[in-house]
Design brief:
Layout lengths: L1 H6 L11 H23 L5 H31 L4 H23 L6 H24 L4 H20 L2 H9 L1 H17 L2 H9 L13 H32 L1
Helix pairs in contact: 2-3, 2-10, 3-4, 3-10, 4-5, 5-6, 7-8, 8-10, 9-10
The structure holds retinal.
InterPro entries: Arc/bac/fun_rhodopsins, Proteorhodopsin
Subcellular location: Membrane
GO molecular function: light-activated monoatomic ion channel activity; photoreceptor activity
């Protein structure tokens, strides 16, 4: 036992062209730093915004823990950590739906809006997992179902009842809502590209040269940290208005 301990290196070596390993590593650090930032700054705000910043921190913290495992999984096994990836998403994406609800609460958003968005996001992710991990031969089919759920979310926040509430709230809430809508339309669209780069289907060849995990890792950094910063910015603006 003692021999084994001394002969096995404790840290796996990382090749200079291992972009997957590199983005897992940097992603892990970025998520940890963002979590510290959100948690340590949340007490600067009053109760209403504190909860929103707390949720931003929870999103990056849950991701940091999953990135820790995914980085390790990749370093030791050398395969896509699909399971950890989807567990991370199925916890953090519904929390992003909660953020929409929390922001729009000032305009009287109802819980039903939050649950509708959460339900759609879970459908989007579970069907995505089926295509990526369980029924890979029909990846295009499951990706399509997932994409439909994604578009319903996009519709709901851009044009549906969420949009109406944001307009009613106006001011900083409306502009934060708009920015978050862009994150969902453009930032979240990064994921289907990763999916098509990493699963078999008619679309094979379109995204050759792109690595699924690198794309997902870039998407996560933009969406989780960026999304949280938009909410943080809203809290700063709203709080300084009250004080002025
Ligand atoms: C923090 C993690 C986030 C914001 C993850 C978002 C993931 C998606 C928007 C995934 C969407 C997918 C499709 C629209 C179709 C193909 C399958 C998915 C699950 C990759």
């Amino acid at each position: 036992m003692g021999n084994l301990m001394t002969s096995l290196p404790l840290v796996a070596k990382m090749a200079t062209d291992d972009y997957v390993g590199f983005t897992f590593f940097v992603g892990c650090m970025a998520m940890m730093a963002a979590s510290a930032f959100f948690f340590l700054s949340m007490n600067n705000f009053d109760r209403k915004w504190k909860t929103s910043i707390l949720v931003s921190g929870l999103i990056t913290f849950i991701a940091a823990v999953h990135y820790w495992y995914m980085r390790d999984y990749w370093a030791t096994i050398g395969e896509s950590p699909t399971f950890f990836r989807y567990v991370d998403w199925v916890l953090t994406v519904p929390l992003m739906c909660v953020e929409f609800y929390l922001i729009l609460k000032v305009a009287g958003a109802k819980r039903s809006l939050m649950w509708r968005l959460i339900f759609l996001s879970v459908v989007m992710l579970v069907t995505g997992y089926f295509g990526e991990a369980v029924y890979r031969d029909q990846a295009w089919f499951w990706g399509l179902i997932s994409g439909i759920a994604y578009f319903i979310i996009v519709y709901e926040i851009w044009f549906g009842s969420a949009k109406k509430l944001a307009v009613e709230a106006g001011g900083a809430v409306l502009s934060a809502h708009k920015t978050l809508c862009w994150f969902v339309l453009v930032g979240w669209a990064i994921y289907p590209i990763g999916y098509m780069a990493g699963t078999p289907g008619w679309y094979e060849g379109i995204f050759t040269g792109l690595n699924m995990d690198v794309i997902y890792n870039i998407g996560d950094a933009i969406n989780k940290i960026g999304f949280g910063l938009v909410v943080y910015n809203l809290a700063v603006i709203a709080t300084s208005k009250v004080e002025a």
